[in-house]
Amino acid sequence: MAKTVKAIGLMSGTSLDGVDVALIETDGETVAVFGPGRTYPYDAADRALLARALEDARGLADRLARPGVLGQAEQRLTVRHEEALAAFFHAFPQHRDVSVVGFHGQTVLHRPEMRLTVQIGDGPALARGLRALTGPPGPALVHDLRAADVAAGGQGAPLVPVYHQALVRSLPQAGPVLVLNLGGVANITYLDGDADPIACDTGPANALIDDFMTARTGAPIDRDGAAAAAGRVDEAAIARLLDHPFFALRPPKSLDRNAFRDWVAARGGLDGLSTEDGAATLTALTAATVGAVLAHLPRRPALAIAAGGGAHNPTLLAMLAARTGIRVLTAEDVGWSSDALEAQAFAFLAVRALRGLPISFPTTTGIARALTGGVIALPNGAQ
Hints:
Layout: E1 5-11, E2 18-26, E3 31-41, H1 44-56, H2 70-91, E4 100-103, E5 106-111, E6 116-120, H3 123-134, E7 140-143, H4 147-151, H5 161-168, E8 177-182, E9 185-191, E10 198-204, H6 206-217, H7 226-230, H8 235-241, H9 261-267, H10 275-293, E11 303-307, H11 314-324, E12 327-330, H12 341-355, H13 362-365, E13 375-377
Parallel strand pairs: 1-4, 4-7, 8-11, 11-12
Antiparallel strand pairs: 1-2, 2-3, 5-6, 7-13, 8-9, 9-10
Helix pairs in contact: 1-2, 2-3, 6-10, 8-10, 10-11
């Protein structure tokens, strides 16, 4: 049996809301202890810089290039992650003996059909800062976790299903379970007993809603789904938007954060809707795209467990239940953490990378065989 170690995961998601830091104790196959988790929000200037970086990344053909503001954004992102770790260790000094840190970085472009995925974030620089925070010898840091899968012809996403599988194995639930991550993009992991997990991105989630609310109100989110709850869904717009060829594809499949922005702008008719009706329509679109993937699964799930920022949106959860006909619980309902789950997953993946265990699979990313991944920055500066 492999040794259980302390591992920290760092996640900056497509919603651009902040740095999630979470600690678990794991051997990369099971989770022995859920440690603390914290979110360190970006300020408005950080979010604006990252939004500009997303724009400048749209024309990238070289995953190592940092044109426009991308270089500046990468530097600031790395500093913000180091500051988040410093705050975390200040709050929990007993965990400075962490063995490994999984650093996701910030996805600014995801084009697996071009064998291209770009996560900004300076792994070696963060590893040096991490050693200064913990004292020598310092933990290993695993970064650039998607690149190997995409280079091998995989989708590079989702990467978290192997962690979902470890968690679901501890539940008493009978029948297939759907773990639903509602970040900037929505993705699912379908788990049924000992069968390999099936996973894919399903469509937009918070990204479109957040961008719409920012443009209409200046607030970066529809807090608690209040605007959507007060609005009316434009069902004709939903039908037009679901006509996108992505929804007819079988898993595995993945999306860039902005994959549907132009499609929704051209076909959604949001300019003619009130803020409340637009928010309701975009929220219903997320629910409808999750419903659309059900036809591609082996059996109908008995339960959906929602995590990510969207799990705090009761309007979205109600629409998911109504449009899928599946019982929907939150991560908290089953003893998990909606906010920490994805960061925990990257801690788990980092341990698997250190052990040479696979982090992506044919049924989750479409690669030919299970594959490990990640670049390991060791405390002495070696890669």
